[in-house]
């Protein structure tokens, strides 16, 4: 079953092109003699995320074409993504997959959502329809976008609402890039609140990936001297592409069998058992600089222990002095409470790995173990590592940045800061109040777990 990716806005297009590049790297033939299972792995991955056209006479004819639609109000980033794919010589974007204009949305969510983008929206829906018609069986959509800007968050949200109306039975997973807590855009909290509130009603799951946490991985674990957005995109793309490509379940439960088998949308069903609780977080180990990978050997027990420590840490990372003060005043922060989790193990003997995640303090006591944790394994290791462990969780860890954004946005709204920029393009104060109310209810529901 095929997945159509939506690259929305500057962030979504940069991340999407890096993600497809990582997918191609992950399915390259493994060193050594050819293996039947490697060929099956490559075929399944390409069928899900790429369309393989018949060979032609053009230089790029016959290359796998990404099942993707690129949408941005500016042409520069889209053109760069298309050119990067063509230069790789291994894959390309389909003709007509790019939808762009000449001017951006000025980081204004209202302009992207309710501004003069109707023609762009119609063209994007037509491109989506063309991609869907090329799928033998459509599983769903993966929308990659930022919540801080104008086009990706505003126009992207409106496009996702249209997709839900046009394809009500297809799964919709939104990958949301959460901005730095120190601020990238002055109105980023407004944009984040409006995006999250509107997507909550149309999306099946919202995977929140924080720039603060990804930056920490690049700076502290990968030892990047100067972290750029391309470094952040590479880390996220590797987690989404190389870590979550699996075939074989470990735990023989109804949930895991459904997840592994015929309909990838069952993944959303297992991780999102309640329509109000659909915020997901992702943790992956190991994260090592390239210079250390050849000299490091991980066993499964050590990887799972490291992953457990990673999931216990807070998502937001305040300065060291602030952490010490908070620890002295309020004590150490409690570990996040988990509603549902998916553990992905990749590498030799992954299927025979003893597990320690079935019943931990993070799990709710009233959730059956087979429903609280699904485990997948894949004997083929991810690119660059001998083994890896990844945890996709529906838990309270992601609430901290959401609560922080809602709090700051509310303080700005009470003082009417920049509200006129939104009302000018059709987003009323009632829309703000409805968004605040919905997210406060979501936060309260997670806090009650």
From TrEMBL:
Acts as a positive regulator of hedgehog signaling and regulates ciliary function. One of its GO terms (molecular function) is structural constituent of cytoskeleton. GO terms for biological process: cell projection organization; microtubule-based process. Keywords: Cell projection, Cilium biogenesis/degradation, Cytoplasm, Cytoskeleton, GTP-binding, Microtubule, Nucleotide-binding, Nucleus. SMART domains: Tubulin. Belongs to the tubulin family. One of its GO terms (cellular component) is cilium. Residues 54-250 form the Tubulin/FtsZ GTPase domain. It comes from the Eukaryota. Its main location: other. It is found in: Cell projection, Cilium; Cytoplasm, Cytoskeleton, Microtubule organizing center, Centrosome, Centriole; Nucleus. InterPro entries: Delta_tubulin (IPR002967), Tub_FtsZ_C (IPR008280), Tubulin (IPR000217), Tubulin/FtsZ_GTPase_sf (IPR036525), Tubulin_CS (IPR017975), Tubulin_FtsZ_GTPase (IPR003008). PROSITE patterns: TUBULIN (PS00227). Pfam families: Tubulin. This is Tubulin delta chain.
């Amino acid at each position: 079953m095929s997945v159509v990716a939506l690259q929305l806005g500057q962030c979504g297009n940069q991340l999407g092109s890096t993600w497809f590049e990582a997918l191609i790297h992950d399915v390259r033939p493994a060193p050594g003699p050819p293996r039947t299972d490697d060929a099956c792995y490559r075929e399944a991955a390409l069928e899900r995320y790429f369309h393989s056209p018949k060979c032609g006479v053009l230089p790029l004819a016959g290359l796998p074409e990404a099942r993707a639609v690129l949408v941005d109000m500016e042409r520069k980033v889209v053109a760069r993504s298309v050119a990067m794919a063509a230069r790789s010589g291994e894959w390309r974007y389909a003709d007509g997959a790019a939808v762009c204009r000449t001017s951006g949305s000025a980081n204004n969510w209202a302009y992207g959502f309710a501004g003069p983008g109707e023609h762009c929206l119609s063209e994007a829906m037509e491109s989506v329809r063309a991609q869907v018609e090329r799928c033998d069986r459509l599983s769903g959509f993966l929308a990659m976008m930022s919540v801080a800007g104008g086009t990706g968050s505003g126009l992207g949200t409106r496009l996702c609402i249209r997709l839900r109306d046009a394809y009500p039975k297809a799964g919709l997973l939104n990958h949301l890039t959460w901005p730095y807590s120190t601020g990238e855009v002055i109105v980023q909290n407004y944009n984040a609140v409006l995006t999250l509130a509107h997507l909550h009603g149309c999306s099946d799951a919202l995977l929140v990936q924080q720039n603060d946490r990804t930056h920490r991985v690049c700076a502290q674990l990968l030892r990047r001297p100067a972290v750029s957005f391309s470094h952040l995109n590479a880390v996220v793309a590797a987690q989404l592409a190389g870590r979550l490509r699996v075939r074989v379940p470990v735990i023989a439960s109804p949930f895991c069998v459904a997840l592994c088998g015929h309909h990838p949308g069952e993944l959303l069903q297992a991780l999102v058992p309640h329509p109000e609780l659909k915020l997901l977080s992702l943790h992956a180990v190991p994260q090592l600089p390239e210079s250390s990978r050849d000299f490091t050997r991980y066993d499964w027990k050590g990887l799972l222990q490291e992953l457990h420590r990673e999931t216990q840490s807070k998502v937001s990372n305040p300065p060291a002095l602030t952490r010490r003060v908070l620890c002295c005043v309020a004590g150490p922060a409690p570990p996040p409470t988990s509603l549902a989790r998916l553990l992905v193990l990749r590498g030799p003997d992954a299927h025979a790995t003893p597990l320690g995640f079935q019943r931990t303090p993070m799990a709710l006591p009233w959730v059956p173990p087979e429903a609280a944790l699904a485990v997948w394994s894949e004997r083929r290791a991810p690119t660059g590592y001998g083994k890896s462990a990844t945890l996709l969780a529906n838990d309270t860890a992601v609430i901290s940045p959401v609560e922080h954004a809602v709090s700051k946005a509310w303080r700005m709204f009470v003082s009417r800061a920049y509200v006129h920029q939104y009302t000018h393009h059709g987003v009323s104060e009632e829309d703000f109040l409805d968004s605040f109310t919905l997210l406060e209810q979501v936060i309260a529901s997670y806090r009650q777990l």
